[in-house]
């Protein structure tokens, strides 16, 4: 706010000076015209006035350039978002520099000689971001409850749902797991995604043949068939009004070969169809052809049943839901500039929704998200972490889907070179402030 006040004060004064010069020039211009219309003896007066006008124009241009320079300086001050208390500590050149290991924003003065964070009452000597990338980083969160975090630590994260539909959570190193309500952890942390293939073969009984229907008395129909089945549990007799739906009339006990018969009494006048089905104790009945009879005229006809199957094999493949397969071959290579790190790995999963890249300072227990990538579905992955701080850092990568995340073993890399730039992309240093690359 203090910087903005100074800027507006300067702008107001510049505007007053410009207005004064404009009025002065307007007053002088008629005299120039009058001089031009006079005789040659007054030419020296015109030259004198032109010289004065030229001096005034240079003064205006100087004020404009000075205003523009201060505007650029204040633009960066606004970009840095320093509070009034930080500006009081670090001066008008106060600007954001990096986030420390605790995730706190660190600000520096213009000459980069001192630093402070929000709430400080004194500055700290030196201001080096160690080349920290200007992309804001956030600590990965897992939505674990306080009780789960107490069991699994700060790296607690959701992994998968077990067969009972309960959410299973794991620790950072994927060595222990727990679910809500547990008072102790379980060794290991795996989604246990498995594929189970079940093959079942149903062998149908032999089809009853020679099915016939006859009108043996008033409203009485007798059904006869030949039994070829071995191992049937029962026979079912079906009837329907021609073209309607089948209904079971009766279930008869098994036979040991020979002929079977059934007498259906009290049959109303009309046209009916009958079918005989040989059934085992399990599913898979074998249906006969069906016979049609008109109980008024006694006429009959037989229709072949083409839907009977002798053997049916059913194969069922079930894959339990799981997190993506752990990636392999993670490497970390320092780029030619000495402070960018290039990560490469092999993707072994076909069900990830995204990849999350993590980094931490060696010895720390807190992983920080460096970025995310889309699905790979096999092949290789590459990610570049720009302007990495000096020191030894550790990286790991984590493919994730709706059932959880898996994590690679971590790799370490040591940076000894510091990025020279303290300005964000698109800006260059002007000493106490950063100026846009588009301004020259």
Overview of this structure, please?
- Helix content is 20%, strand content 38%.
- With 440 residues, it is an alpha+beta fold.
- Strands 5, 23, 24, 26, 27 and 28 form a six-stranded antiparallel sheet that branches.
- Helix 1 runs antiparallel to helix 2.
Compute the average pLDDT. Answer: 75
Structural class designation: alpha+beta
- Percentage of residues in DSSP E strands: 35-45%
Share of helix among residues?
A: 10-25%
Summarize the structure.
The protein has helices at residues 2-37, 43-80, 84-90, 146-152; strands at residues 95-99, 105-108, 114-117, 124-125, 138-139, 157-161, 167-170, 176-179, 186-187, 195-203, 209-217, 220-227, 234-241, 247-253, 258-264, 271-279, 286-287, 290-294, 300-303, 311-319, 328-334, 341-346, 354-361, 368-373, 380-385, 391-401, 404-405, 411-415, 427-429, 434-436. By secondary structure, the chain is an alpha+beta fold. Strands 5, 23, 24, 26, 27 and 28 form a 6-stranded antiparallel beta sheet that branches. Strands 13, 14, 16, 17, 18 and 19 form a 6-stranded antiparallel beta sheet that branches.
Helix/strand layout:
Elements: H1 2-37, H2 43-80, H3 84-90, E1 95-99, E2 105-108, E3 114-117, E4 124-125, E5 138-139, H4 146-152, E6 157-161, E7 167-170, E8 176-179, E9 186-187, E10 195-203, E11 209-217, E12 220-227, E13 234-241, E14 247-253, E15 258-264, E16 271-279, E17 286-287, E18 290-294, E19 300-303, E20 311-319, E21 328-334, E22 341-346, E23 354-361, E24 368-373, E25 380-385, E26 391-401, E27 404-405, E28 411-415, E29 427-429, E30 434-436
Antiparallel strand pairs: 1-2, 2-3, 3-4, 5-24, 6-7, 7-8, 8-9, 10-20, 11-12, 12-15, 13-14, 13-16, 16-17, 16-18, 18-19, 21-22, 22-25, 23-24, 23-26, 26-27, 26-28, 29-30
Helix pairs in contact: 1-2
């Amino acid at each position: 706010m203090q910087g903005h006040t100074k800027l507006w004060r300067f702008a107001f004064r510049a505007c007053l000076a410009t207005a004064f010069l404009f009025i002065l020039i307007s007053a002088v211009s008629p005299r120039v015209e009058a001089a031009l219309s006079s005789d040659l003896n007054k030419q020296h007066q015109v030259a004198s006035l032109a010289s004065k006008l030229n001096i005034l124009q240079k003064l205006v241009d100087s004020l404009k350039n000075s205003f523009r320079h201060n505007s650029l300086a204040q633009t960066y001050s606004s970009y840095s978002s320093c509070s009034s208390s930080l500006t009081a500590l670090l001066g008008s050149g106060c600007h954001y520099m990096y986030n420390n290991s605790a995730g706190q924003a660190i600000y520096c003065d213009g000459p980069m000689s001192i630093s402070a964070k929000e709430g400080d009452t004194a500055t700290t000597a030196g201001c080096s971001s160690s080349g920290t990338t200007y992309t804001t980083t956030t600590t990965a969160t897992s939505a674990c409850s306080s009780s789960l975090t107490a069991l699994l630590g700060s790296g607690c994260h959701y992994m998968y749902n077990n067969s009972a539909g309960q959410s299973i959570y794991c620790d950072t190193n994927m060595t222990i797991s727990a679910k809500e309500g547990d008072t102790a952890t379980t060794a290991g942390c795996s989604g246990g995604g498995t594929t189970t293939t079940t093959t079942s073969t149903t062998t149908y009984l032999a089809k009853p043949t020679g099915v016939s229907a006859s009108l043996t008395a008033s409203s009485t129909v007798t059904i006869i068939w030949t039994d070829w089945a071995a191992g049937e549990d029962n026979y079912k007799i079906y009837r329907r009004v021609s073209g309607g739906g089948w209904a079971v009339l009766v279930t008869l006990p098994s036979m040991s070969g020979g002929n079977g018969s059934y007498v259906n009494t009290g049959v109303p006048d009309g046209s009916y169809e009958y079918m005989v089905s040989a059934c085992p104790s399990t599913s898979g009945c074998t249906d006969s052809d069906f016979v049609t009879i008109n109980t008024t005229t006694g006429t009959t006809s037989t229709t072949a049943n083409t839907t009977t199957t002798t053997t049916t094999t059913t194969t069922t493949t079930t894959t339990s839901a799981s997190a993506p397969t752990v990636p392999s071959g993670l490497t970390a290579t320092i780029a030619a500039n000495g402070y960018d790190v290039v990560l490469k790995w092999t993707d072994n999963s076909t069900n990830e929704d995204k990849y999350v890249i993590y980094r931490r300072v060696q010895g720390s227990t807190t992983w920080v998200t460096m970025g995310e990538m889309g699905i790979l579905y096999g092949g290789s992955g590459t990610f570049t972490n720009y302007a990495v701080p000096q020191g030894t850092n550790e990286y790991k990568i984590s493919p994730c889907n709706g059932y959880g995340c898996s994590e690679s073993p971590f790799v370490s890399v040591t940076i000894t070179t510091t990025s020279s730039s303290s300005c964000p992309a698109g800006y260059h240093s002007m000493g106490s402030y950063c100026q846009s690359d588009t301004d020259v």
